[in-house]
Design a protein that fits this description.
The chain is an all-alpha fold and 113 residues long. It is 50% helix and 0% strand. It is flat, with a radius of gyration of 22 Å.
Length: 113
């Protein structure tokens, strides 16, 4: 159950352990073995938390607010660059979209002879 709960957006291992401890369910218990009472206890705890759509909406509104006030972090978000101070000369391939601009960088094509 500990791993199964991490499928929810916003629930990691520590939060899953907190939920299961609050519901009184064993961490290693398999999902089909959970009883109705345990399931309702887990559901009650999860419904109090901000997860899935609500959390995504909150994160998106926070990023939009940063862009609206035109702060440094907001401008980095809008440009699609790393926000938290990482270097961009050599790294940040995933954030920038794997851009290789110079001739010397990147993989070389294997020539068939």
């Amino acid at each position: 159950m500990e791993i199964a709960l991490t499928a929810l957006y916003g629930v990691g291992r520590p939060r899953a352990q907190y939920i299961l401890k609050g519901a009184g369910v064993d961490f290693g218990k398999k999902a089909p073995a959970v009883t109705e009472a345990e399931e309702t206890a887990i559901r009650k705890i999860v419904e109090k938390m901000q997860i899935e759509g609500d959390l995504k909406r909150t994160v998106a509104s926070n990023i939009k607010r940063l862009k609206d006030i035109k702060c440094y972090r907001g401008s980095r978000h809008s440009k699609g660059l790393p926000v938290r101070g990482q270097r961009t000369k050599t790294n940040s391939r995933t954030r920038r979209g794997n851009v290789r601009k110079t001739m010397g960088t990147g993989r070389r094509r294997v020539e068939k002879t």
